[in-house]
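During the second half of the funding period, the structural biology subgroup turned its attention to how the target accommodates small molecules. The most pressing case was PMV, which had performed well in the primary screen but for which no bound structure existed. We therefore specified the complex as follows and requested a full 3D prediction, including the ligand pose.
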Amino acid sequence: MIHSFKPIKGNIAWRSPSNIAIVKYWGKYGNQLPQNPNISFTLSKAYSETSVAFQPKAIENAEPNIDFLFEGEENPKFRDKIVKFIDSIKSILPFLNEFDLSIQSSNSFPHSAGIASSASSMSALALCLIDIERQVSENFTDEEFYRKASIIARLGSGSACRSVYPYMATWGYSTSIPSSSNEYAIDFSAQIHPIFKTYKDAILIVSSDEKSVSSRAGHALMNNNLFAEARYQQAKQNMEALLPILKNGDINKFGAIAEQEALSLHALMMCSNPSFILMHANSLKIIDLIKQFRQEKDIPLYFTLDAGPNVHLLYPKSEEEKVEFFIKETLSTFCENGKVIYDEVGTGPVKLK
Ligand code: PMV
């Protein structure tokens, strides 16, 4: 097929946040398709900002040129990843065969803070690329725009597909969510109780070391895990159970599911072959203290974890003061240099001027 693109140049920039899954995506098939439906909060303060300058390629019969700067500096490792990713999506976004790109990206959090940056950075890049497509090729509706961005983000890093929407997004086909799909995430913000739109997520940095197992390797380990099928069933059940809870705002039931999901994810890694223990002694200490605090003070403080040792504390805004006092007085002692990132549910990506 011959494509013709408008021979224009420009510069597009987006800020896109990280997200934290409540029902986890762990295990995939095909081209980055999830084995089970999953759902996350879109965060606010942990974000990436990416700009992409584009112009018709300088040398007509050559491969387009891609420059990449991370936090203002050359980063060959990240550049290689991006070049490979862009190559892999050229059949979906054919304009990428015709334009030179100069990409710059930075994060609101330090690269080695122990928070995964792939969701924010891949969603920010995807939003820029779809925005360029809209300019050089065809126009489309906002709904199509975010759906396309979600597909491209997913191909970069699965969980990134959820970051293009505000508040809450769900990815993966679920029988009880009619428009859900394995190909892209959908905006779930209209189906949640207002209490969740201001929910807090304090990220306790137990260690900022690079993860001992990449998420690619972690997903792959599910293929030979005897518990995999049971896990996919559990995730489906938890999704079903969570939907009415998200609607009626029952934060204790919500927290119980969040914790079970986090511990299941870690249990799966412990019984994989080879096995991985991703929590540290201090992660366990923090979890114990959270449970004790919840019981003694009757405050709905719950936790979740990604595939690493850092603990995400989930609590309603109304409990902010008491929980943050507890974090400062007690929990931060178990964090690397006392480091805590006080994040919260956010309104999703924004286009930058
Ligand atoms: O998007 P990936 O391939 O980095 O996998 C992310 C997996 C978890 O963060 C552990 C869970 C999730 O659903 O975000």
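Two results from this model are relevant to the next phase. The radius of gyration is 20 Å. The pocket of PMV is lined by residues 21, 24-26, 38, 118, 157-159, 215, 265, 306-307 (CB under 6 Å).
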